[in-house]
Amino acid sequence: MTPHQCICHCFPPSHTVGQAFDDKKAFGGIYADDALAHLTTEAYAVFAESNGLYPGVFPAVRKFEAEVVQMSMSVLGGDKECCGVMTSGGTESIFLAMKSYRSEAREKGIEHAEIVAPSSVHPAFDKACDILGMKLKKVEVGSDLRAHVKNMKKAITARTIALVGSAPSFPHGVLDPIAMLAEIAKASGVGLHVDACYGGFLLPFLRKEGRIREDFDLRVSGVTSISADLHKYGMAPKGSSVLLWRGRERRRRHFFVCTDWSGGLYASPGFRGSHPGGVVAGTWAAMVGTGREGYTRAAMVAQQSLDDIRQYIEGIDGLEVLGEKEHSSLGVLAFNSVHPSLPILEVADEMEKKGWAVTRLQRPACMQVQAALRQGSTFASAFAADLKVAVEVVKKNKKEGKQEEGLAGIYGLAGTLPDRQTVGDILYSYLDSLYKL
Fold it and tell me: Would you state the torsion angle of the CA atoms of residues 334, 338, 340, 341, taken in this order, to the nearest 10 degrees?
């Protein structure tokens, strides 16, 4: 058996993805349709053996990377004062931003810097602050699930170096009031990082079509940095994000150089040394191949699906969509139950029985659904039809006193346990299990 035959035998197509993904009932973080995925895969293959660490050896990769950053700035409101870098994903983009703000704090004589963020902010900020020895002060969001501007202002101290806002927040798809946060950031002399990792290549095109009205990016004076994942609504290969800055000095603070290594002079713009040229080439191909019109169409297809699902849910007795429509359900929609007799996590169990790979959230307990171009325009009606049946099944089971077996009990318990260390220990065990054969 040849190596190629061996690989094909070990990984037949039926084992690479689940049935739910094939049926477009699982989101799986995949955004592009088949045609664009084929284009980016071809570009990736051409540069599969290239390494962005060696721009002199692979000049095309360097050029692609610079153009990806430039195109990203044009989408996200950058001007001639702005600059950026390409990273491996949202976590690295956020990490580098926090590293830069920490360096700025130290230059100002602040040894233990603080970041003020809404409670809905992505855990990547927790991770970055934990590694960098910074304090992340989380402020509870308002009743509309948006960042509570007044309370975030109160949380600013002499140690605060930056605020954070989401565009949108990942749990509920809510756009924080970025312009208002920018005003208090400027008045307080601190930075403002916008986490647009999820919506960076969605919201600009929804704004263009009038679905949202607020500015949230570098167009807003007071926004000093923004992260945006290209491997989400940018529809690029996985491992592609950008971090954009207002001012080159801030970017320089996360550059790394070593001048006295015996191996020669060493410099890297971010956390990585070697980085795959295939991802860079695939990202460039996705952006050029899609263009502004293509991104606008993809954004509207995805958002229309969610807007349709919202309308369907509003017509189902007992369910409620979280967040105000004008500022929420952007790329992701979260909903819960308004009746104790309709446990939302049991509804999630019923949806899984129908083949849907659903996402369960906590605090509050709710369900989440995401949409992208690859799922097409019929996704919403299919989801809504099964959801309506699932709700009726749960109501009937409760009326008859049936005890359902599923994940509802596990997720419900995990969300309410006051001892979060116990929940953390469970998650550590889960991570260990991923490496067992």
Answer: -90
